[in-house]
Amino acid sequence: VALLGTVLVIVGGPGIALGAKSITGDLMMLSRSIMGAIYLLMVAKLMVKYPVRQMLALEYTFGALFLCPFLFVQPAAWVTAVILSWSSLRILLFSSICALGISFLIHNGSVGKIGGFRVAAYGYLQPLTALLFGWWLLGESITGLQVLGGIAILGAMYVVQRQKWENADQ
Fold first, then answer.
1. Taking the model in full, what pTM does it have?
2. Would you state the pLDDT for residue 19?
3. In this predicted structure, what is the pLDDT of residue 26?
4. pLDDT at 104 over 70
5. Alpha carbon 4 to its chain's center
6. Positive or negative, the Cα torsion across 74, 80, 84, 89?
7. How far apart are CA 51 and CA 123, in angstroms?
8. Is the dihedral of CA 72, 39, 47, 98 positive or negative?
């Protein structure tokens, strides 16, 4: 239900292009979802063995080791110019520490406390929140299909949480 709602939120908007030009992005998003599911399954198993901060350190360490071979490939001139600018360095530091570090800390802590299934379910809220912030901050319009998709997403969240509420009442 939440997946269908997400599709409606994304595809139901005005001016979206579906076709040959967007297939590369669509395939990248699909592969990201598959890799995200694999990652979530692996993290859920490891959260039993390691504390959240140690997990975060392991993720960053192995991520850096995986990326090290790319340092030896000669970058294009524009990449070198972007990497060496002070502005780019500040953006990189902010992204690394705030956006990635804090979000992974919260994400892994959530997997350890409420489990991978519930954390994955909350991932469906991202398109809905993006839709609402786009409307609020950018003045974008919301279509009826997107409203229907949002209702489906919230309905799925209710189903996921209902069991927790029922267990708390007993």
1. 0.55
2. 65
3. 64
4. yes
5. 17
6. negative
7. 22
8. positive
